[in-house]
Structures are given as C-alpha cells and as structure tokens.
Specification:
By secondary structure, this protein is α/β, with parallel strands linked by helices. Helix content is 27%, strand content 24%. The chain contains three helices and six strands. It has a six-stranded mixed beta sheet. Helix 1 crosses helix 3.
Length: 171
C-alpha cells in the first residue's frame, strides 16, 4: 500500500461509555507533521460539512494503525454510542456528507502539501466496519472534489473484536 498511495486514511465510527459524546474527530500519529496537517484539514472540513453540535479538534496520539511512512490520519466520523448520532451515521445522506467532507479535505491537503504539481493524491483508505451488529459502515461516494485522486482500497471488514476501537496504544 505505501508504494501505491501518498496518504493513508483509516475511517472509523467512535464509541464511548458516555452516551452524550458526539462529533467527528481526526487523529494523527504524534510527531508526524505531515499527518498533523492532513488531520487538521480533514477536521476543518468535517466541521464545515457536518456542522456538529460539538466541534472537536484534531489530536495527536500513539496509534498503531497510523505508524506509516505516509502522512496518515484516523477519521472518527461520529459516535455510535450516541443514539442520535448513530441514527445520522446510518443515514445515506449523512454518509454522503462525510464522504464529501473527506474529499474536500483531501483536495485542500493536496494543494497545501504541494501534491498538485505531482499529479494528484493517491490515497490509501482502510475502511473499518464498526457499530452494533455490524451497522455503521459506509461507502465512499463519488464526488467532484475527488477528480484526479487515485484510491487504493486494500481491505474492508471488521477490525478488532466488536464495538470499540482497534487502535492500540493511545486509544
């Protein structure tokens, strides 16, 4: 994958014991400046596109899934432990908004990082199915902002054991 992509995104649904937590949040590997830029831009576009009640900020951590030579970000689309937000996450319209926000963020990242001169961003996506009874996964939809992006989708399926997050240290 690392030879076929310029960025790596790991897309998840979040879960927490407090049922009131809400909002998308993007994480990056501590010490990774390129990942920090990627996460910050994606977070900005998720807030603009989804208009969540709680506006979170991109955060650093020590995440096994983000240990890559590529600029990497972990996108938590929202909380399945919050029933109102879970309902949104299961909605095809809301899923489209998430995909458009991610696409817009990648387009801005491409410009800010100078990848436009290199013919676009090849993004590696690792889609995580998460949620109660396998619900919560979504498809990436086509979007005009994705023109010129070459996507590698190496895997799609459940990661870890059931609900929660398979991120390892720092989770």
């Amino acid at each position: 994958l690392e030879n076929q992509a310029d960025v790596f995104l790991s897309i998840h649904m979040n879960e927490y014991r407090s049922r009131s937590e809400s909002g998308p949040q993007v994480f990056y590997q501590r010490g990774g400046d390129a990942g920090r830029l990627l996460a910050g831009v994606l977070q900005k576009h998720l807030i603009a596109g989804l208009k969540p009640k709680k506006e979170r900020t991109a955060m650093a951590g020590n995440y096994y899934v983000l240990r890559s030579r590529l600029p990497s970000a972990l996108v938590e689309c929202g909380f399945i432990s919050n029933s109102a937000e879970e309902k949104l996450l299961l909605s095809p319209d809301y899923q489209r908004k998430i995909a458009e926000a991610i696409a817009s963020g990648l387009a801005e990242y491409r410009t800010l990082s100078g990848l436009t001169q290199q013919g676009g961003v090849r993004a590696g996506f690792f889609l995580i199915q998460s949620g109660r009874h396998g619900k919560g996964a979504f498809r990436l939809h086509s979007h005009q902002g994705m023109a010129g992006f070459r996507l590698a989708i190496p895997a799609c399926g459940a990661a870890g054991g059931g609900g929660g997050s398979p991120l390892g240290a720092g989770d």
